[in-house]
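Regression test case RT-17, inverse folding.

Input:
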């Protein structure tokens, strides 16, 4: 009827509704956040528009989030910085004090847009309600285009409930996928000339290759050309860790002795020792593949720079390789060196893993975990020794199935990652488990997120490898003795935590399943039970030898502290 027509045309919508509709138009499916004044209505509007809302307990654990003003946004800055450093597309929506109260000392007043510019690719506040859709679209597009990263959209409290006639609002359609660019053909030729001249080539597969979904083309390049490859921590799984060409077990030797390195979506930062001696040969040649022009030449000048999409560029390389049928020989001294070192390291690791001591060491724990984890599970990991040793022993077989502390080395992100992964896995009905392997110190940063898991019945399996400290701790007897020696604030080593802390009981308190694990048999039994339970989360509190450490390194003088 004419009345209904005019009702639709003259319908008023709130700022909260416009934010939700703009996000929905950009195909946002999930919102993670902590609500309060002034963003409660935004979360409610998001749910009304069909976006799934997951309420968290700590802003720093959130990846794509809705936060309150002032302290709430400040807590989220760590997560934004982590996303930006790791090149992950994250959208943060933050409430702020009313515009007409700026500079007056308003509730939780803070220069949020300005602050977020340090930690994001884009930071803005819509100037009016009818601009919300445009700003949200630009934020989403900026988070994905070029090198991905965090973006921030600020919504003042008075805009959340303010209303505007819908006819005045232009809903911006979803931005298209990021454009795909290819490298210059001359650069491809130069790169192949360098690669074909290599005596000791090495491909390094970074998380940029995972983001670029280059696994198919990379498998063809590795297998077709017979090249050894080394994944970065979050490049694991782009090609399976048990692939015969994976030389991760001889990482130090591979980096030190290679004469040509092809960086595929990886950066020469601290994780790769900046590409410099003493970790790399001083005369190594680097072929750099990256979608960010500013990354080219960081820390060392590349012999060839291939700017563009990793997947597209690998396909370009394959096109040229197919023409002349080039292949790196399988019977070279380089392959012999790598295989011998891999075998020697595997023997050393196996000896540690097969020890039958109680309390257990790291290698025993990871040996049994690796035997029981399904090959398609998503592994989330954070900690010091827990993450470092676990990376070498817990294989990834599929791309984009590993999340860890990443480039920024951020602790406290693991449980948030696990919640996000489990939410997606459940809603997509993939049947894949999410396993979160934590050091006891790392778990403490966001441990209360176990309540979030229990509230939403997310069947995450958390394994806390508990050594009573940061890097190392002391046993209960030593702790008691130190307590008798005087004030623990002056006696206890700064790295120590409470011995045998009952993290399992925290999970029990919220209705999940907690297990206290001391022996190999208890570990296997608890993990099998946890993996069979799809109704609730589980936490295995695995008590290990507080003095357990990493195996002796090939080059002990090249430790992290000496970098």
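Golden output:
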């Amino acid at each position: 009827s004419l009345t209904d027509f005019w009702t639709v045309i003259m319908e008023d919508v709130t700022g909260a509704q416009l934010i939700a509709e703009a996000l929905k138009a950009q195909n946002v499916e999930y919102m993670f956040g902590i609500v309060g004044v002034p963003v409660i209505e935004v979360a409610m509007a998001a749910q009304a528009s069909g976006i799934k809302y997951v309420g968290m307990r700590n802003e720093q654990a959130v990846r794509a989030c809705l936060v309150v003003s002032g302290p709430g946004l400040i807590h989220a800055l760590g997560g934004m910085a982590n996303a930006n450093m790791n090149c992950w597309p994250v959208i943060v929506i933050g409430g702020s004090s009313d515009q007409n109260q700026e500079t007056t000392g308003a509730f939780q007043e803070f220069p949020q847009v300005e602050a977020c510019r340090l930690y994001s690719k884009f930071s803005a506040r819509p100037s009016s309600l009818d601009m919300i859709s445009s700003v949200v679209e630009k934020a989403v597009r900026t988070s994905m285009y070029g090198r991905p990263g965090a973006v921030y959209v600020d919504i003042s409290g008075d805009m959340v409930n303010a209303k505007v006639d819908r006819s005045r609002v232009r809903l911006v359609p979803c931005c298209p996928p990021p454009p795909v660019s290819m490298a210059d053909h001359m650069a491809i030729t130069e790169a192949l000339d360098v690669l074909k001249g290599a005596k000791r080539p090495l491909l390094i597969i970074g998380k940029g290759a995972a983001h670029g979904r280059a696994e198919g083309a990379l498998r063809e390049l590795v297998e077709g050309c017979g090249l050894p490859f080394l994944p970065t921590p979050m490049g694991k799984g782009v090609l399976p860790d048990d692939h015969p060409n994976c030389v991760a077990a001889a990482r130090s030797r591979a980096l030190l002795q290679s004469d040509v390195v092809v960086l595929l979506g990886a950066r020469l930062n601290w994780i790769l020792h900046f590409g410099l001696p003493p970790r790399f040969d001083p005369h190594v040649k680097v072929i750099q593949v990256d979608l960010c022009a500013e990354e080219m030449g960081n820390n060392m000048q590349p012999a060839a720079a291939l700017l563009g999409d990793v997947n597209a560029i690998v396909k370009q390389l394959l096109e040229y390789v197919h023409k002349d049928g080039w292949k790196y020989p399988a019977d070279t001294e380089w392959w012999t060196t790598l295989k011998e070192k891999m075998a020697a390291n595997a023997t050393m690791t196996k000896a540690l893993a097969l020890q039958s001591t109680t309390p257990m060491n790291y290698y025993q724990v990871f040996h049994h975990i690796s035997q029981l984890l399904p090959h398609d599970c998503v592994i989330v990991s954070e900690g010091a020794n827990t993450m470092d040793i676990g990376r070498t022993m817990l294989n990834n077989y599929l791309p984009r199935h590993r999340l860890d502390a990443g480039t920024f080395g951020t602790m406290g992100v693991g449980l948030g990652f696990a919640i996000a992964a489990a939410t997606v896995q459940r809603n997509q009905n993939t049947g894949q488990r999410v396993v979160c392997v934590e050091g006891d110190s790392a778990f403490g940063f966001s441990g209360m997120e176990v309540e979030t898991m229990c509230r939403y019945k997310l069947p995450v399996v958390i394994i806390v490898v508990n050594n009573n400290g940061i890097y190392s701790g002391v046993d209960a007897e030593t702790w008691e003795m130190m307590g008798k020696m005087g004030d623990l604030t002056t006696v206890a080593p700064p790295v120590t935590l409470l011995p045998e802390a009952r993290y399992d009981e925290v999970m029990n308190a919220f209705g999940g399943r907690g297990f206290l694990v001391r022996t190999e048999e208890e570990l296997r039994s608890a993990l099998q039970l946890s993996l069979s339970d799809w109704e609730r989360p589980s936490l295995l509190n695995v008590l290990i030898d507080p003095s357990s450490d990493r195996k002796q390194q090939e080059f002990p003088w090249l430790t992290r502290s000496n970098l």
